[in-house]
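ok trying this again, last paste got cut off
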Amino acid sequence: MLRFATISFVALLAVATTVRGQEGAPAVPSGLDLTLFELILENQPDGQVWARYRFVAPDLQQSDFDRVSGDFPEICASYALPELDARGTHPAMIVLSYADRPIPFGEAAPEAVQFVESFRVDQGACIWEVY
């Protein structure tokens, strides 16, 4: 019983888990060359887990959103969900981001080009949360 309480306490303390050095990146409809910078598995205050896939695309331009917008649902469904399922991780949200350079999570970089989209995971499908 004490072991279970200790594990629960440690799990509550873990705010985020970062996984770096993932091999490969998805091929995307835009043809943009992506590199997975990091995957962050982030515990939310309500107990949900969010998976943040952060990609670097050095050729990304501010005018590219229309070009890359179709990439996001494709990455979510064909890359993130299967990869997370293989890990045994079932997040409530998947947040995908592109940036033209590596930016430490949580740091402001107003000079960088960045696009971020989020998807609610519902019955094994990505539901785009358009704001």
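PB: full thing came through this time. Confidence is low (pLDDT under 50) at residues 1-22.
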